[in-house]
Amino acid sequence: MRSRLDAQLAEMSEELIQMGAMTERAIASGVTALVEGDREMAKKAILLEEEIDDKEAHIEQLCLKLLMQQQPVAKDLRLISAVLKMITDLERIGDQAADISEITLTMDIPGKKQLPAIKDMAKATIKMVTDSIDAFIKSDLALAEEVVAYDDVVDDFFLQLRGELIERIRTEPNQGEAVVDLLMAVKYLERIGDHATNVAEWVIFSITGFHADKKNDA
Question: Is the pLDDT assigned to residue 115 strictly greater than 70?
Fold first, then answer.
């Protein structure tokens, strides 16, 4: 009985890892499409959102099957509960990566002519997603806590780039529409950082039974 449960938990974890990798690709493709003005890449990146949605539904079914058939308790129950929460945040990351790609399809001026530093912010958000998934794989509490702290780096990028974009609107009003599009893209990246933080916090919960938004251990 235990071996079957372990096999199902391993399958669930592997599917989550795959979903995390898909979201990383979605962010990277979406931002590259934006910066290069590559509409074909943007379309391909948008299609990734559908794959991410399908993966979320599949993992959710695995989790529900585990809950109904195996009736897990203690640490196993905590792990399954955490995965159900994590896939929700990963799905939202996929949505926001797709939103960035949608911007590419409407922009007249590629992002690289407007704000090269957007790639640096994208790298920072991808790092958060990658590290949060690695923390899950390794049950690495310290790494998960580093992800939570690293959200300040992404927030600093957002504040810096928002300030630059607002100044650009003031000094180059003829490019106002394109700059507003980039401001939206930067905001989506900041939200992705928030969702990666959520994933890391659920990793912490899966390990310790403590969640930052909860007063009591589970």
Answer: no
Amino acid identity of residue 1, one-letter, is M
Q: Characterize 66-78 residue by residue with b for buried, 16 or more Cβ atoms within 10 angstroms of its Cβ, and e for exposed.
A: beeebebeeebeb
The three-state secondary structure class of 85 is helix
Tokens of 87: 């896939």
Q: How many residues can be counted in the chain?
A: 218
Alpha carbon distance 191, 217 (integer Å): 27
C-alpha dist (Å) from residue 19 to 53, 69, 86, 112: 9, 24, 10, 29
What is the value of pTM for the model shown? 0.91
Task: Count Cβ atoms below 10 Å from residue 51 Cβ, excluding itself.
Answer: 15
pLDDT in tens, 141-157: 999 999 999 999 999 99
Half-sphere exposure of 81 (CA within 13 A, CB side): 17
Query: Distance between CA 60 and CA 192 in Å, rounded?
Result: 21
Alpha carbon distance 138, 203 (integer Å): 10
CB 59 within 8 Å of CB 15: yes
pLDDT digits (tens, 9 = 90+) for 17-67: 999 999 999 999 998 888 888 889 999 889 999 999 999 999 999 999 999
